[in-house]
Amino acid sequence: MGKLEEMLVRNGLILRQPDGSVSYLEGSILSNSLVIRNSSGWVTHRIERAANGVDLIVRNTSTGCVETRLSGNLF
Q1: What is the mean pLDDT of residues 53-61?
Q2: Alpha helix locations (H) across the chain?
Q3: What CA–CA distance (Å, rounded) separates 42 from 61?
Q4: pLDDT of amino acid 40
Q5: How many other CB atoms are there within 10 angstroms of residue 39's CB atom?
Q6: How far apart, in whole angstroms, are the C-alpha atoms of residue 41 and residue 50?
Q7: 19 — alpha (psi -120 to 50), left (phi > 0) or beta?
Q8: Within a 10 A sphere around the Cβ of 26, how many other Cβ atoms?
Q9: What gap in Å lies between CA 12 and CA 45, rounded to an integer?
Q10: Distance, CA of 24 to chain centre
Q11: Distance between CA atoms of 60 and 1, rounded to whole angstroms?
Q12: Among 30, 17, 25, which Cα is nearest to 56's?
């Protein structure tokens, strides 16, 4: 598991359920996007570059609100 995935698990954005289902991180080279999908395959969060160009922000797709900021110096 990479550092980004570990940080998302720690922040509760990637969940491991007792029934074995998980939400997961998915990236696309073509669209240059990184998303978190739940165990049903629905996109729940988008990971975007912050305005400072270094940090990453995790945005909830249903509300549009930024839920957490991931510091760039941790990568």
Answers
A1: 86
A2: 3-10
A3: 10
A4: 83
A5: 14
A6: 25
A7: alpha
A8: 12
A9: 12
A10: 8
A11: 23
A12: 25
As to burial, measured by CB atoms within 10 angstroms (0-12 exposed, 13-18 middle, 19+ buried), residue 71 is exposed
Question: What is the distance between the alpha carbons of residues 56 and 72, in angstroms, rounded to a whole number?
Answer: 7
CA-CA distances (angstroms) from residue 30 to 6, 16, 27, 33, 59?
A: 24, 28, 9, 8, 20
Q: How far is C-alpha 43 from the chain's CA centre?
A: 10
pTM above 0.70, yes or no: no
Strands 43-49 and 56-60: antiparallel
Q: Which amino acid is at 15?
A: L
pLDDT at position 65: 93
